[in-house]
Amino acid sequence: MPCERKPMRYGHSEGHTEVCFDDTGRRRTVRSQYEIKDSRFIVTCGNDGDVRIWESLDDDDPKFITVGEKAYSLALKNGKLVTASSNNTVQIHTFPDGDPDGILTRFTTNATHVTFNSIGSRVAAGSSDFMVKVVEVSDSSQQKTLRGHEAPVLSVTFDPKDDFLASASCDGSVVVWNIEEQTQVISWPLLQKSNDVTNAKSLCRLAWQPGMGKFLAVPVETKVHLYERGSWDHVSTLSDDLLTQPINVVSWSPCGRFLAAGSVGGLLTVWDVNSKLCVERQKHEKGFTVCSLAWHPSGSQIAYTDTEGCLGLLDGLGTSTADKNTTKQVAAKKPAKDYDDLFDDDDDRLMDEGLSDTKSPAKKAVGWDDDDDDFLVPATGRVKNRGAFLDDENSLDTGSLKLGQDKFGDNNDDAGSSVAPAAPPVAPLRPVYEGPMPTPPQKAFQPGSSPAHLTHRFMMWNFVGIVRGYNDEQDNAIDVEFHDTAVHHAMHLTNSLGHTMADLSQEGVLLACPSTEELASKLQCLHFSSWDTNKEWMVDLPKGEDARALCLGQGWAAVATSTLMIRLFSIGGVQRELFSLPGPVVCMAGHGEQLLVVYHRATGFDGEQALGVQLLQFSRKKRQLISGEPLPLSQKSYLSWLGFTAEGTPCYVDSNGMVRMLNRSLGNTWTPVCNTRETCKSKSDHYWVVGVHENPQQLRCIPCKGSRYPPTLPRPAVAILPFKLPLCQTTTEKGQMEEQFWRSVLFHNHYSFLSSSGYEIDEDAQNLSQKEQQELLMKMFALSCKLEREFRCVELAEMMTQNVVTLAIRYASRSRRMALAQRLSEIALEKSNQMQEEEQEEPEYSSTRRSSGYGHTNVMAGGRYSRRHNQQEEEEDEEERGEELMEEEDGQEMEPEEATETKKRVNPFAKEASSPIKPSPTPIGKMGRANPFKVPDSGKMSASSGQPRVTNILDNMMSSKKSAQLSSSGGKPSKSPVLKPLAPKPKTKTQSTLLQMAATKTANKKAQENTEPAANLQKRPDTPPPAPPADNSENKRPKTGFQLWLEENRKSILADNPDLEETDVIKEAMGRFRTLSTEERLSWTERAKGQSGDAADLKKRKRAEGGEGLENENEKAEADESSAKKKKSLDPSSKLSVFAFNQN
Amino acid sequence: MVSFVTARPAPQAAGTVCSAVPVGRKFLNTHTKKQTDMDPSEVEFLAEKEMVKIIPNFSLDKVFLIGGDLGPFNPGLPIDVPVWLALNLKQRQKCRIIPPEWMDVEKLEEMRDLERKEDMFTPVPSPYYMELTKLLLNHASDNIPKADEIRTLVKDIWDTRIAKLRLSADSFISQQEAYAKLDNLTLMEINTIRAFLLDTLNCMYKLRSNVQ
Questions:
Q1: Could you tell me which CATH class the domain A456-728 is placed in?
Q2: Collapsing DSSP states into helix, strand and coil, what is residue A612?
Q3: 8 A C-beta contact, residue A74 and residue A45
Q4: Which of A458, A460, A480, A483 should one mutate to test binding to chain B, selecting the residue with the greatest count of B CBs within 10 A?
Q5: For the DNA replication complex GINS protein PSF2 N-terminal domain, which residue ranges apply (chain B) (predicted)?
């Protein structure tokens, strides 16, 4: 038997109204001790002074008795109608005839409440003159006056045994009187004090349990206190979470088992007193204050009236009288109706704080099947279907379960029959749906606007400016204000059409109003950027079509209408396109040529919204970038903001404060980038997002204390929130860097998108960002190294650009991770190959490559970067690079001299050709411009293969040696250096300079010693990109032990052999050095390491020297190059220190 | 477009101040030439270096000034700038000024009450509270809610403090103390009393030494 809330009907004029049931129906005796009376009439009185007698709620022509100008209270028993009227009397009328039957008593002011005792022999009346009178109905002269209240009496009630009388008063006390002795038995100061009944917070209608009168129910604020008769102890409290406003009136069911309460907010609650559980909740359909409650004598109905004079009825209450095991049912009401309430009437209010105390959108019917006596167990706990539209912390638990019992208790023997007449089971008529409840679809809204029902509201707050709407008594106007006054001056418009939607762009203001009965829905555009004199146009939408959402892009405007269509206009007012949406629109956003539409894809269930999203681009080639994919939202949330970042990436915010951004590089997925709720101080605070910027990374929003929307006054200030990807373990260093890295990657995706769609991009910023990313990668690499996670290192290296990989290789070899370094060099090689391929493709496909490449920021971006760096002062670097590149491309193997010559020849081309496409020059400063893979590649390959493809003799020597060493000593200092292959080298070179020689040799030396971790760099490649000449790379080495030794011993050599040429000196020196013991050589090497700091100076000097002779001699040029190389090679090593981690 | 004043107008030279000294006290001037004295406008000048939040309504890249870089300015986005710039922009209607946090009726009332209750000087919200109040209220009262009340409150605080200062100066002299320690005084307050106090002390010293 579900409880049904019948629609309210008009009963009396506004004001206090009371209701009671007529109890004069036929009496039936059920199970001997209970009486059930059929009631024929509902009787009400109200402010209009009439007592109306309703045959039923649907009675259109109730009988009425006029009892005075106003009727304050009434009581009906045994055919006698007692009323308190405005002429300060308590009168009797016969019922149902309505004949006056005399005046029972008088007060100096009006009586506030009258009531019969249980048998109807006495009437008690409380009055505003602080007195309570108890009068015999049969003989009005027998009066007892109870004095003691110090303020108007609110209510009176008789003890069913007639010994006591309880009264509540505006002085805050609830008093129990002994009627015979006219004394106070006990007084509780329970209520808030007030000076008059009209000012009292609550009417505080007391009620004494019928039958044995065990309990006295006193409504105290939002709870009901039960006091035990006799001991007058406060034995229990009935409460309910949903009750947030004071209870006005309580009333016992005729059986004494249930207690109904009506509250100020219009909430009707029924408790089972035994279990103290709430068994029924209903909400006044308009939320008016309930001021009177009456149970039908059968206990199956409750009639109630509100302060607006309306009468309502709850029918089908399962709380019938006879037995515990009666049939009970409280089932779900039609949810659809609730949804209408929620989303049509006061949708916006719901979204707003504090007003969301309407009823749960979904009620759940719970079936109970246990035999327990305690069958009325309400389903506690929160219903799933909440939170979506109601604010958790602010709503009064509104979403929580409509308690439902769907139980047919065991209808054993007599129990079932006993109640049958009064409360016929109606369950079969109303099948109860127990599945997931559909979520009411959220209404269309304008992102960046506050709810339309506010009189002062933001109609739009975006990048461009603010549109405010005022709609109060004096004024209906719209204010448009621009953040940048250079765009346009502020505007003030009278809103005669009643626009409710607005959007604002640099070009115009778009406004729309819904249709009214006479007028069609209109779209108005203030096109202030127009160069002609007509700055405004207006369009009527077809009849029956309402604008639901609108947005402005660059040169166009779009309106989504109630007919599931989107109409596109040019900003000047030309109708452009028209297309249908798959579902009702939720909101739209425009940016440049992009249009983002969110619509209802389907019905969501259990609080979820099922939204779909479309992203269209109206560039020359119109296309749909996202075609109706589901829009991911947080659980049980709805969309609260939709828009583009200033850079043009779609972005949205849901009601849980989660900001998500489109990740174009990951197949147009949505990545959460910020949770605004995390930064809120209190649960009810929110951030109202007004804009998102990717560069700098800023989430612009307005902090709203205790609400979702900011007020228009005082003018709210914009705050900036940082973004934070919700990665795991962001408290750790690793997590932090990962978060930074991916955030950086994500927030720079727009560069590739913009460039692919033909916009100019800020290359500086882009390069900065890439540099940042690479630095982060390198840091992560170093961290992983430190943690001995080599596999992870390699994974990281795969994300690096090629030159950073070389850095990483250095780092790895410095920290003596040879295996890692090897793997890294493989990666480096791969990357260089890849890059080469791209380079080759580049000339033809440069544009496509760029567009295709976005997302792969790591590797690809180098080419564009280098352009800017083609500076004069770096000519040498460039030259060399160009040469090397050419060399690699040619794949030729050359002797060093030849190589040099080739280089010279091709230089101009190399430079030009490479400048637009140069792959590697990267964010990591100068060093990036060195041919990054030459050295490491070679070393690695030789090491791994051991069968190098020889590029020149030196190479051959080096690699074989190295591989031997690696295999034997695994990177530890080797003891038996073999320098033989050195001999041929000088021969091949006719005019080697000292520098070159020295460098070569030192390199060799180092290769032997291999004590320096960086020795790996000397490894040479044997595969496809044939390595450039060895000396180049070797010259990079800082001074070696041999060099030092040579410096010290040169004089003695010269002294011994004064006629020697420079080359011979070195040869000789070589020989001598070799004769030294291993220990000595090692010590020299150590010294050399210690001196490496000085090397830079030295090199500079060399470089200058080299520059002088450049025009004449190739050799010198070569030396020059090598010195330049050296310089470069130094940079990275010093750079490394940036990434070094403290070992602690 | 926005053009900046790159140089702030400095207050008048101190020399002009001296000429304003009453003739009757001229003999003192010979003794203590007032190089050390600051004109209130000089103090105000110092106060103008304080930062204040503004919401610009124009867009401008970073500007590089000797005192430091300012900007970038984004329309609608709050940014900290020195008071002198804020006022300049405000006068050209290029920004809205967000008053400092302490410039709030409730906080100032609290402060005033505390100042009245305590015998000592209480810490002030800003070392330049008086100057800032004056500057901001004179130039940007439309951006500051309850400007008049704030003006009154700050004046009250000022008066209370100056009264205390005079009182302590009085007791300092009457008790012939050698030194006194006063905490939480602002530059403007010190500057207000300095000329008077030093002159007085000098004068008294002279008189005393003549007596002996």
A1: mainly beta
A2: strand
A3: yes
A4: A483
A5: 39-98
Q: Do B75 and A482 lie within an 8 Å CB cutoff?
A: yes
Contact yes or no for A215/A273 (Cβ under 8 A): yes
- Is the confidence metric ipTM above 0.95 for this complex? no
A933 burial type by CB count under 10 A (0-12 exposed, 13-18 middle, 19+ buried):
buried
Q: Which residues pair with A557 in a beta bridge?
A: A552, A569
CATH superfamily of A4-26+37-315: YVTN repeat-like/Quinoprotein amine dehydrogenase (2.130.10.10)
Could you tell me where the beta strands, DSSP code E, fall in A339-462?
A: 456-461
The whole-angstrom separation of Cα A1140 and Cα A841 is: 38
Is B57 within 8 Å of A485 when comparing Cβ atoms? yes
Q: What residues of chain A lie within 8 A of the CB of B96, using their CB?
A: 715
Compute φ and ψ for B191, nearest 5 degrees.
-65, -30
* In the block, residue with structure tokens 């690695």: A940
Q: Which residues of B117-152 are buried (b: 16+ CB within 10 A; e: fewer)?
A: eeeebbebbbbbbbbbbbbbbebbbebbebbeebbe
> Bridge partners of A501?
A512
A761 vs B95, more confident: B95
pLDDT of residue A373: 41
pTM of the model: 0.50
Measured between CA atoms, the residue of chain A closest to residue B72 is: A696
What DSSP letter does each residue of A879-903 carry, written as one string?
HHHHHHHHHHHHT----HHHHHHHH
Tens digit of pLDDT for each residue in A536-566? 999 999 988 999 999 999 999 999 999 999 9
pLDDT digit string, tens, across residues A477-514: 999 988 888 888 889 998 888 899 999 999 999 999 98
Closest CA to B126 of B135, B117, B116: B135
| Token pair in block for residue A785 | 């190294």
DSSP A485: T
- Check residue A1032 and give its pLDDT: 45
- The answer to whether the CB of A192 falls within 8 A of the CB of A173 is no
Q: Which of B60, B77, B80 to mutate to test the interface with A (most CBs of A within 10 A)?
A: B77
Strands ordered across the beta sheet of A18-21:
A18-21, A42-45, A50-54, A63-66
From CA A662, how far away is CA A651, in angstroms rounded? 6
Residue of B nearest to A461 (CA): B76
Q: What b/e readout covers A325-352, taking b as 16+ CB neighbours within 10 angstroms? A: bbbbbbbbbebeebbebbbeebbbbbbb
Q: Is the pLDDT of residue A827 over 80?
A: yes
Starting at the edge strand that comes first in sequence, how are the strands of the sheet with A89-94 ordered?
A71-77, A80-85, A89-94, A100-106
Look at the alpha carbons of A935, A940, A946, A949 in this order and tell me if their dihedral is positive or negative.
negative
User: Is B176 in contact with B134 (CB distance < 8 Å)?
Assistant: no
Residues of chain B with Cβ-Cβ distance to A463 below 8 Å are 76
The b/e string for A790-807 (b: 16+ C-beta within 10 A; e otherwise) is bebbbebbebbbbbbbbb
- What single-letter amino acid sits at A928? G
- Is the CB of B78 less than 8 angstroms away from the CB of A717? yes
Cβ neighbours for B56, distance < 8 A, ≥ 6 positions apart = B73, B74, B75, B76, B77, B79, B89, B94, B95
Decide if B77 and A717 are in contact by the 8 Å CB cutoff.
no
C-alpha gyration radius of chain B: 21
Give the DSSP H/E element, type plus range, for residue A118.
none
Check residue A78 and give its pLDDT: 81
The pLDDT, as a whole number, for residue A588 is 93
- Ordered domains of chain B (ranges, CATH): 41-195 (1.20.58.1020)
- On whether any CB of chain B is under 8 Å from the CB of A381, the answer is no
Tokens of A76: 């009906």
Closest partner residue to B59 among A484, A700, A717, by Cβ? A484
Helix (H) or strand (E) holding A209: none
d(CA B205, CA A1118): 86
